[in-house]
Every structure is written in C-alpha cells, then in structure tokens.
Amino acid sequence: MSGVRSIFYVLDKQENKIYQSTIKGKILDTEFSIKNRKELSPLVAGDRVRFEKIDAKTGRIISRYERKNEFRRLKNSGREIQTIVANLDYLIVVDSIDTPPLRPFFIDRCIISADYMKIPLLIVFNKIDLLNDDNRELYELAKNTYEKLNIETIDVSTVTNSGIDKLKDKIKDKLCSFNGRSGVGKSSIIKRIDEQYSKIRVGEINKKFNRGRHTTTFSQVYPLSFGGHIIDTPGIRELAVYIDKPNDVEAFFRDFDEFRADCRFPTCQHIDEPNCRVLEALENGDIEEFRYESYLRIRETIEKISDSEI
Of 11, 28, 115, 309, which has fewest CB within 10 angstroms of its CB? Predict the structure, then answer.
C-alpha cells in the first residue's frame, strides 16, 4: 500500500490489482499515543490493510493490520512522529561516493534507527565510478567500519552497472525501502534494477550546494518483475532519530557492544566517566572517531527535545 494525503493505493495481491482508496469514516483508529505527539499519517507505504471494494477501481480502508516493524523519525522539534515506511524485510540506506559527497553521519542515524526498530539493514554506496584520490579515504574508512559492525555493504554504479546484479539478488522477493538524501541516486538505481522503470524521472544536482533536488515527492512502491517490491522514499535532508531518552542511545551503538560490559558503572554513558572502557577503546583506535562523534550528535539532538528524559 502507498498513498499521498488522503488518497491511498491498495494492492490486492489475489487480483494483482490496485484500488484507489480512502479511509472509511476519514479517521483510522490505530491506538496511537506517544507522549501526546501527533502522528502525521496513520497509513504509510508498506502497510497491510483490510479494505472493501466500492467498484472496479476504488475502495475504502477499514483498518490497518499490526506492523512487524516501522521506520520512523521525529519532526517539528519532536512534537510530531513521521512513520516513513512499514513492514520491511530490508531498510536499504543509499549514499553516494560523490556528488553529493558521502555523509557517514546520515548513514549512522539510519543504522541506529534501524537497530532500534529491529529492521534488517543494508548500505549501498552508489556512484562508485566517481571514486578518486580525493574521496577514497572517507569511503574506505566508512565501508570498513560498517563491515566490522556486521553491516553488509554493496558498491553500485548505474553508469557501469557494477553491483546491480548483486543488489537484485539481495532484494529478490523482499519488501525493501530505499532511503537516503536527495541526489544520491535512489531512483537511478531502480531504473537499472528493473527495465520497466527506465522512464523514472531523475533529478539533477544543485551545483551551488552540491546536493540533490527532490524528484520523489512521496513514497512510491515499485513491484519488481523478478519478485518483490521497492519503496522509493523522498530524499531526507535531516533524520531526527526516533528515541525519546538520550541515555538510551548508547545501548543501540554497535561499536560499544564489545566494551560496555567492562565499564566501571553499569549506567555509563561513555562521556566523561572514570574507568570507561568505551573511551579507552576510542583512545586506542578500536572505535572510530567519526562514529563516536555521531553518538554525541545524536544524544545532543535528543536532549533538545522539550519532553526528553534521562
């Protein structure tokens, strides 16, 4: 299922047919209540729903089935919660080697969000054909770091088709979501993965700021000819991690798993506490500095939310 505003498109799998649908009664009871926050939409791409047919083309959504997982972020200083996609087999984080330049801090926020929400994760480094002496060090550092954390990565080029077959094998018969910043090439990859989508519109890079322009304005579901579905989401400039308490962040940083149990204090936050094994590992080079900086940045973001608690 996918949709925009109050119109949703429901795929009836038995008929392999899409029905344009609205919510029956205009309000869907989802029992949503998290600190009195507003849910931006009760239905998102990937949701499974019960609906009734009105005619050969339209229907009404009656209820939403329980989700097995959901990829969420906070918006409006934490007052709103936006669920981006649901019921995923893989969250695929797409970032580019260059144009726009690689941004590990964004990838890190996707990793901790996926781990927190128990969604399997895959990282795609796109535009590998642009690898050169200026960007190689950051790319190799990021790739090696993530693979040491047991996160699978795939290098892809839509120019040379490198990595496309490997990615197709990974997502076959799965429901996956492509997530990343504008301009990293999510739509271009879909064009290469399945020829039936060769006419998808692809945006240009803003040369002044070296970042992408939005071409996907709402989440779109693409059925794949070889089995499975891809959800292409709009480019995300900032991802506010969906965690309420800053002190909960450290539990979801994979880098700390090997060391946290040996910290002096069981509630150690690995900032300035004495006898902190995580800080020792950082000093010894066993934890990369950019990952630790991501940890501090995410904590700081959550601390700024007005109703966050330790």
Answer: 309
How confident is the model over 263-274, as pLDDT tens digits?
999 999 999 999
Confidence category of residue 29, pLDDT binned at 50, 70, 90: low
Burial (Cβ within 10 Å: 0-12, 13-18, ≥19) of residue 134: exposed
How many angstroms from the chain centroid is the CA of residue 174?
Answer: 16
What is d(CA 71, CA 118) in angstroms, rounded to the nearest whole number? 9
At 213 the pLDDT is 45
CA dihedral angle for residue 102, residue 133, residue 190, residue 90, rounded to 10 degrees: -50
Phi-psi region of 173 (alpha: psi -120 to 50; beta: other; left: phi over 0): left
Distances (CA, A) of 38 to 4, 34, 126: 18, 8, 35
Cα radius of gyration rounded to whole Å, the chain:
21
How many angstroms separate the CA atoms of 227 and 66, rounded?
A: 24
Instruction: Write down the pLDDT at residue 218.
Output: 65
In this structure, the strands spanning 58-64 and 17-23 are parallel
**pLDDT digits over 222-250, tens only?**
999 999 999 998 767 667 788 888 999 99
pLDDT tens digit string along 36-47? 566 777 889 999
Report, as an integer, the average pLDDT of 154-173.
Answer: 97
Tokens 């899409």 found at = 18
Give me the sign of the Cα torsion angle 268, 271, 272, 276.
positive
The terminus-to-terminus CA distance of the chain in angstroms comes to 37
Residue found under tokens 């009404």:
60
